[in-house]
Amino acid sequence: MIKNIGVFLCMLLFPVYGFGMHIAEGFLPKKWAGIWTIIFIPFLIIGYQKLKKQIEKVPKTKLLFSVVCAFVFVLSSFKIPSVAGSSSHLTGIALGAILFGAYSMSVAGVIVLLFQALLLAHGGITTLGANAFSMAVVGAFSAVWVFKSCRFFRVPQGVAVFTAALISDVLIYVSTSGQLALAFQSPTHGFLDNLIKFLSVFAVTQLPLAFVEGIFTVVAFNMISKYSKQELMVLNPSLY
Amino acid sequence: MVKGKSISVIVVIIAVFVVGVQFVLPFLMGDFKGTDDQAVGLISSINPDYKPWMDHFWAPSGDWGETLVFAFQTTIGVGIIVFYVLKNNRKLKSKKC
C-alpha cells in the first residue's frame, strides 16, 4: 500500500499546473466547432450505453471506473516541462480504454474536459467536441488498437500497455494539430503547411512526455490488475 | 469510523503536499510556456484577422486562484485513487488472514 501511494506522491513532485493540449475557447471557427461536436456526440451516446451495461453486469466496476476517471483527472492536471522551453500535459486516457473499451472513455473524457472548461478556463465549451474527439476518441481507440495488435504478436502485457499509452498520447496531439490545420487552411496556408507548423508545436513537446505517460499507465495498470482481478475477468476476459 | 478517519487524514496530507509543491515549483523551474499558448500564437500568425468568437464565462482570478483549482482537481483524483488502494489492500490482507 505504502509503495503504491509512494508512486503517486512521486508523480506529484513533477507538476506545475496548466494545460497543453486543449484548443482554447473560441479558437475554432464556428463551422469546425459544430462539425467536431456532431462527430463526437454518437461516440458519447454509445459510450454511455456501453458503460451503463458494464456497470449493470458488474456493479463493482463503478469504483473501478471512478479510479480510471481519477487517473485522467490527475495526469491531465500535470503540466510537465519538455524540450525547447515548452510544456505540456499527460492525458491518462489509455488506461481506461484498455480496461473498459474505447467507447466508455468518451464519458470519462467529457467529465474531465467539462470540469477543466468550466472551472479552470482551459479548453472551452465551444471546443469541447473537438477536444473530446482528440482525447477520448482518437486517444482511446488508438490505445485499444495498439494494445490488441501488440497482444496479437505476443508482446508481453506490460510492454503492450506502455506502447499503447505512448502512441495514444502522441496521436491525441497529432489529432489536435490536424483539427487546427484543417480549420485555418487558406490559399496561402495549405493543410499540410499548417499541419507541419502545429505538429512542430505539439508533437515535438509531447514525444518525451509520452514516455512518462507510458510508465505511469503501466504502474496504474499493474495496480488495478492486482486489486480488481475478479472484476476485470468478467469485464475484459482478454486481459487474462 | 477509524478507517474513514485514516483515509481522510491521508487525503488531507496529500492535498497539503500538492498545494505546497505547487507554490514552490514555479520558483525552482522557471516559466515553461504551454503548447496551448504557443498554438494560439501560431493561429494569430497564420490568420492575423481571426478573433475568438467566444470567451470563458469564468476564469480563476490570478495565478494563485488557478493553482488552487488545479490542486483541487488533483486532490479529487488522488483522493479516489488512495481510497481504492486502501480499500483493496485491506480486502487482500483479510483474504490472506
Structure in words:
The complex is a heterodimer of chains A (240) and B (97). Chain A has 9 helices and 2 strands, in the order αααββαααααα. Chain A has a two-stranded antiparallel sheet with strand order 1-2. In chain A, a hairpin with a 4-residue loop joins strand 1 (79-81) and strand 2 (86-89). Chain A has helices at residues 2-11, 30-57, 61-75, 93-100, 105-119, 128-152, 157-183, 191-227, 229-235, and strands spanning 79-81, 86-89. The relative contact order of chain A is 0.16. With 240 residues, chain A is mainly α. In chain A, helix 2 crosses helix 6, helix 5 packs antiparallel against helix 6 (128-152) and helix 7 (157-183) runs antiparallel to helix 8 (191-227). Chain B is an all-alpha fold and 97 residues long. Chain B has a domain at 69-97. Chain B has 3 helices and 1 strand; from the N terminus they run H-E-H-H. Chain B has helices at residues 2-29, 35-46, 62-96, and one strand at residues 33-34. The longest helix of chain B has 35 residues, at 62-96. The two termini of chain B are 22 Å apart. The mean pLDDT of chain B is 75. Chains A and B meet through helix 1, helix 3, strand 2, helix 5 and helix 7 of A and helix 1, strand 1, helix 2 and helix 3 of B.
Features:
heterodimer, A: about 240 residues, mainly alpha, two-stranded antiparallel ribbon, 9 helices, 2 strands, about 70% helix, B: about 100 residues, 3 helices, about 0% strand
